[in-house]
Structure formats: structure tokens, C-alpha cells
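DATA SHEET
Item: assembly model
Revision: 1
Owner: S.N.
Input lines:
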Amino acid sequence: MLFIAVALLAPWLAPFDPAANDWTSIRQAPSAVHWLGTDDVGRDVLSRLLFGARASLYAGVISVVIAFCIGVPLGLLSGYYGGILELVISRIVEAVLACPFLILAIAFAAFLGPSLDNAMIAIGIAASPIFARLTRGQVLAIKTEDYIEGARAVGASDLRIICYYILPNVITPLLVQATLTIATAIIAESSLSFLGLGQQPPAPSWGSMLDTAKNFIVQAPWMALFPGIGIFVVVFGFNILGDGLRDALDPREAR
Amino acid sequence: MSLSFKRCGLILAGTAALFTKVAIAQTLTIGLAEDPDMLDPDRGRSYVGRVVFTGMCDKLIDVGAKLDLVPQLATQWSWNDDQTVLTMNLRQGVQFQDGTPFDADAVKYNLERSLNLPDSNRKNEISAIDHIEVVDAHTVKLYLKSPFAPLLAALSDRAGMMISPTAAEKEGADFSRHPVCSGPFEFDQRVAQDKIVLKQFPEYWNKDAIHLDEVVYRPIPDATVRLANLQAGQLDIIDRAATADLERIRGDSDLKLESAVSLGYSGITINIDHGPQADNLLGQDPRVREAFELAIDRSIINQVAFDGEFTPDNQPLSPDSPYHLDRPLPARDVEHAKALLKEAGVDHVDVELMVTNNPDSMRVAQIIQSMVGEAGFNVKITASEFASMLDRYSSGDFQAGLLSWSGRADPDGNLYAFLACDGTLNDGKYCNSDLDSQLKVARRSNDMAERQKAYTAVGDILLEDRPILYLYHPNWFWGLSSRVHGFKPYPDGMIRLEDVSLD
Amino acid sequence: MLGFIVRRLLIALPTLFLITLMVFSLQLLLPGDPALALAGEERDPAVIEAIREQYHLNDPIPVQYAHWLIAALHGDLGISLRNREPVTSLIVDKLPVTLELAILAMLIALVIGIAAGLVSAIKKGSRWDFGANVVALSGISVPNFWLGIMLILLISVRWGWLPASGYTSPLDSLAQNLEMMIMPAVVLGTAIAGVMMRHTRSAMISAIHADYVRTARAKGLSERVVMLKHALRNALVPVVTMGTLQFGELLSGAVLTEQVFTIPGFGKLIVDAVFNRDYAVVQGVVLFTGTVYILMNLLADLLYYLLNPRLRA
């Protein structure tokens, strides 16, 4: 929550313009003026960190929304209708899962051209099979429940059954998965930026900050330290949120 | 008893011999910045490939420390009066690493291979050659279609590297996997992305200058990691040390630093006339380009991006070149730049600047973005990986781009392909007939004074037209372990192994 | 049993086919002409054309695909466009490197993960449990390339204990090899250790409450024997299954780790190949890792089946 607040309030919190250079203070260690030091072209690390939070939040949430929107309908369709459709979708999902996630994301990101938006799309596509598989499993589990049969008996359309009877009953684990995937997506975004396929300069993202920082580990360790801590804390937060949601929503899994 | 003593003694002597042999065997390990591509001089396409070739393949002509041409496999050469026939006398008693003798036939075979191989990357460099005549076993004549001064420099690079005709015939397209040349070290093995091992060639003609038994090239892309390995003693020489690390190398008593100004340059190529993307003020109005240049401070770029270790310059040729022009770097003048924009009828210009997404280029791009922003240029940086970027350059899908060229010994190699109207690397399709004719004059003359005049004219036109805003010459930095002796830096960046030894 | 394996393999075939199709269409998607990317800084148009000819890049994609697929079925994955090495020999060269890294990482993950999971399950609700959970979650949450950078900074640069990165073959020097692999293995292993810990913990908790454990206790066996022999053995079933599944993930996780520590393994091979547009290598490697992933899934199912007495009956 703090993270979201920081991300939204970045413009007011940041002491400096995240893109403003000061040629006289290159790679300065943390000081009273620059709390977290300055980077390789004389920009304030703290300000960039705060603005970078927006990129990370944005990337995490949007890419999961994309993955959700692709994966869930596919899962619903294949789970509900079965047959050839299920066979085809399942194979595709398996094939995508069998390719290393990051390789897929790299390929998509290179295809779409390096930018934050495209990195999110790439992550979203690469992450969608997880949702498809989970959805399908859930649908299969409840498909034969009485209330579904009942709805069918009274002549409800397939679309109506899917939207009103199935979706609400499978949504809980999906939301939990979504929260956990936000965490993965934030790491994936920073990984892509780390490889130069994410956020474009001079706008900051934590991954691209790390990408630059790795060249100055010895000269300016603070450049690498803080964005890394940032990612860690946020991902940690989303993981706890995910766990908490699961415990709260799913009594069977409560420990 | 005595027998066993004797045996014991023999064993001891044997072990001792083994140890001395181990102690003498000198292996030099060099950390390269990239993994080379194909190890075939005619097909090779990378700069680091040339570094490896230097250990393995001798050339007809070599480049000296002052960019002078010195004999290697050719001991002498001369032009006829109208400069269309080059006669070369070849070194005698030289053989290739597979025992094939090196002679005039081999030279003919090699040059014809460079000219005729479908995927030869050398074709352009020596296309002026019409045919080659074997005069006797140690004399060849190259007949040119028309005079072509840069030919000698080409023969001092990959086009002049001699490979064994026997091996080339036998291996065909797979020659690069088992290259055979006539240089001081022969190919031993290669593990992609890991190492290339060369062993001393015992029959080398200049064997007295060689003191190493083995050379290992290891590609390690990360400069910090290369340095760490040098400090740990796993590497003896590192190529292209990062400027940010130089202080540490200088401060380390176990290391030495060697450097040379490179032949290459980095600059902003502007799309002048290549497709619809050229249709913007920066491409169309020289005043806007002047304003852009005035808003840049090259020495700040050098200070901030490269710790002041490179050579800021507004010229395409290296300061070491006898053809380099001495023109002062323009001082940064934002007010003047604004005034020029006003003259051009605008106060803001949008520019998309294309950059390779490596850290150095990104840093330079961001510094430029921030500097020219003060004069009214809204620069949008598009960083993409190299392969996608090349596509956009070749098809004219760019407004301006930060590009580097590794440089060639002859000025023609830094100019013609980029600036001549029919230049193969002229991505911005800049075409100025005066400049074009001067480039051609310089190509046809072997007279230094005449070429100097032509290149001065070229340089001055470039300063007016600004199709490429030259920014700096990168310097080569080699980090050496203090165990390494006899290393000499060369402006072409090659690591020559003659006279190099280890403690 | 045999029928089960055959059935699973038959299902895997269309998946593999789809993978090849997918990887091949990447060629259409990716911007950048491979011939151009290979032509080097000279970019001579004649050379570009010659490369296209040589590697049949001018053929329609379906034709290229058919050629590749037929060759691949014969075990020939083509040659690298960049240095003409056969892709199969590149894979054979690089596989041991990544495999060593993955196995070391897995060992680290299993030892730490199972031990921590065991402790926190037995002392459920205690400070130990809480601590182990926080550590596990941290392991999952930390971006591993960043952890790598920080370890290099501290251990190699600050303290100079271990070499920063690089790779020495264990055949050249085992000690040096281990020195270089330990940090990357730890980095790669942390995330999985976290996952393992959580699985061990929940499996142990349900095992502790299971009937056979209660029976064992009732028989008067010592708590130690009950826990280790009865509870843990059964709890290990899902853990081992998970481990096998994670192993497939490891190959993909190695990509960034290898990048940070400049280890010449699979990850570096494929990342460089994507950036160089060396499609032959990309296709070959993805096909290979895809196959490994599928086999690992199969193995996980088998293990689950074999280790679970109730299922076997």
C-alpha cells in the first residue's frame, strides 16, 4: 500500500527532477543533498527510485491484467467445452509453458520493440498460460456440480452459465494467482529492462537503473543497492498480499 | 640396489624435465570484449575477429605504430607510373601452418578468393583489382581497373591475410572452424563463447620474435568482470578496459595500462535524404544541424560518459592520421543555437535519436538529450538492440542515430562508404557532388600531398554540411598484468604478439 | 505403467510440434534481418545477399520450416549462422555448464528448503517458523540478478573471497570451477529454496496430522523417528515432484544468472543468439529445453506415482 502511495505521489515526493542532470556531480555517494547519491549522468537516485516505482507498479499490474484477459477466457472455453477445443488449447498452453518464460518475453519484447508498454505486453502474453491452465482446472472441478447442471436444465445459454455460474466460483484462486503473478511480473519487467528491452531512457525504471548500475558496481554501489531493495520490498509485499488473500479466501488452504 | 637408485634417478630427472618444461611453457591469456564470429579472414565480420587473426594470420603488409605501412609477407612493393600495376616481392622461405609453401600462387589464390567468394566481406575493399599475375615464385603483379590508393591499406588488413590454399580447398565453407594461416600461432581449438586457443607455430619465419607457447583468447563481455579476472591473475591482458575502471588499473601496482587513440569514431548520423523520415528540419535545414551541434559540449560528453579518457573531436579521422584536420572544436553556445532555430523559423524541433542499447551509447544519448534540450530540441531516445537498429538504418527508418565505426588505417575507409553518393554505408543518403569528387580524387592518387589537399577539402565541406556530427574517438585501453613484457599499443587496436613475453 | 508412459509421450509429441512451429514463427515476428545482423559493420549488400542464399533465407518460411523439421527429425539441428558451429555440438558444449549450475543450485535449494521446511513445520507457529517463512518469502521475492550483483560486490570486490565471475571447466581445475560456480548456484538456488521450504512445510504439516503418523506415535516410537522416518518420507513426495518441475524452470532461470556472472552456458547461448538473430541456434536450443521441460514433467508424474504407495496399489 505504501508502495502504491509512493508510486502515485512520486512527483510531489521527489526532491529532484528524475531526468535532470548535474554534470558536476557524477556518481556521487549518498549525501545530505542527494540522499541516495547520484547516478552515472548526475541524476538524483532517490528521485529516480520514486518515479521508477510508477513504472514497476504500472508494469506489474497491466501485464497481469493482460495475462488474465488472455488466459482466463481460454481456460474457461477449454474447460467448459472440452473436446477438440480443449485439446488444442491445452497443447498450445503446454507448448508456451515449455519455452523458457524469459526467452519468450525477450523474443516478444524484441519483436514489439523495446518500450515499457511492449515489455508489459510481452510479459502478459508469456504469463497467460498459467492463468489458462489454472482456470481450466478449476472449471473442470466444478463443471459437474449440481447447480451447473441445474442451470443447464432450465435452459440457460452457455455464455450465461459461464458468466453467472462458473466465473464467480473460480475467480478466487485466480485473484490469488494474479496477486502472486504481479510479483513475478515486476521481476520480469526489471529483468527485461535489465537486458535493455524495457523502459526507455531517460525515464527511470528499477530494472533499467540496475542495468546501468551493474557497470559501476565498484565505483558507485549505491546505484545498484537501492533499486534492488525497492524491487525486493515490493515483490515481498505482493507475495504476502497473495498469501494473505489465499488464506482469507480459501479456508482449505489455511494453515 | 644400484639399479633401483638409477631408476629412481631417472624418474627424478624425468619429473624435473617435466617441471622445467611446465615452467617454460608460456601461455598468454587475453580477455576480449566479444566472442569473434567466423575465423575466416574473407568472411570475418567483427572487430574482435581481427584481434584473433593478428595472432594467427600474417598479412602482405602490416601497419606500424604511426599508421605507416611496413613489410610483413611482402618485403617490397612498387607502383607503375600510372599507378595501375602494383608489383609485390614476397618473403622467401615462408610456409603455412599445414606445411604448404607460401608463394606467388598462394597470393593469387588468396586475392581471388577474396574477390570471388560469394559471401566475401573483402570484395569491396579490393574490387579495384582487375587480375593478378604470377611473375615468378616470389613476385606478383596486381593489375587494377583504375588507380586505387586505399588498396595498400586493405592489404594490411583482412584482405591481405594469407590463408593456406590447401586448407581452404579442403575445408571449403567450413574453413573458419579449422583456419590455417602463416602467422606466429596456429589454431588449436575453439569453444564458442568460452575460448579460442592458439599454439606456437614452430616453422614461423619470424620465430625469434615469438616468446609465447600458447595464446588463449577468452570472450568476457562485461568490462568489470574482465578487470576482476585480470586482477585475480586469470587473464594477462584485457582488451577495451572501461574508462570508469582506468583509475583502478593505474592505482594497482600489479597492473599496467596501455592506450592508443583509435582509428574509429562515434557520431550522430543524420538522415538527410533517405525516405520520408528525412523530411524534418534536422535533415533538411543545415542551420538546424548547426544549432544542434552548438548545443552540444563534446568535452562534457567525454567527461561525464567516459571519465575524460576519450578524445573529443569533430573530425572523422583519428588525430594520429597524417590527414587529420586541425579545426577547433566549436564552443557550446546555447544562445546562438536558439538564434539559429529562430532563423529557421521555429523555436522547438522534435528529433528521434536512435541508439544501440549498450550502456555507453545510452549514456552519451542521455547527455546529448539533456544538453540540446536547453536549446529547444525535444529529443526522444529510441534504444534498441543492434540487429533491429541495423534494419532501420538500412531502410532509412530513422531521423538521427548514434553510430560508431571501428576505423580503418586509410582515410578512405572512414569516409567513402559513409559519405560518397554511392557509399554502401551512407544510411542518411547524404550526397554532395563536390565532396564526392574530392573523395574520388583522393582514391586515385598515391601522392600524399595531393590526397591531403583532397581530404582537407572533404573535411571542410563536412564541417559545413554536418551529415554526421562527429563526437569523439574512442581510445583503446589495454590492462596488462605486470608479468607481461614487450606489449606495444597500436592505433588499429590489434594485439600484436611479436616480442611479447611473460615473467 | 508402461501404457501410462507411452500415453504421456504421445501427448508430448504435438506439444513439441507446436513448440517448433512457435519458435519458427518467431523468425517472422522478430524485426531485423538475420543476414543484415550477420553481415558485420561493413553491411555489404552483396554479402547480405550471399548470406541469404547460403542459408536459404530467401525461401518461403514454410519451406524453410519443412527443411528444418525434416533435418531435426534426423537429429540435425543445423549450423549456427554466426560461426558455422553445428547447433547440436553447441548444445553439447554448453549443456554440461548449465547442468552443473542447475544441479548445484538444486542441491542448495533442496538442502536449505527441506531443512527449513522441516523445522518450521515441526515448530509450527513458533519464532522459528515465522523466521523461516520470512526467509523463504525473501528468497522468492529477491530478483536473482540483483542478488548476484550484490554478492559480487560484497564477496568478490569487498572481501575478495571468490572470483567475481567467469568459468573454468571442471576438467581443467575442479577447485577453480567450484569457486566460480558457488555464487551463481546460490543465487539461482535461493528462489527455489524458498519454494521448496514452503512445500515441505505444508506437506509436513498435513503429514503430521495423518493417521499413519499418529499410529507410529501410538506405537511408542521416538518423536525423532516418527518425524524423520514416517512423516518426512511421505511429505517428500510432493516436494520431490515439485523439485523435478522446478528443475525445468531452472534452465530458464539460468539465463539471467549466466548473464550476470558471464558463464558461457545455455542461457548466454540463447540470449546472444536472439540478439544476433542466429535463428538456427534459437530454434535448436528452445526445442531442446522444451523437450527437457516436457520430460521433467513426465518424470515428476512418474516419481509421484512411484513414491506414493497409495497410488501404486
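QC remark: The radius of gyration of chain A is 22 Å.
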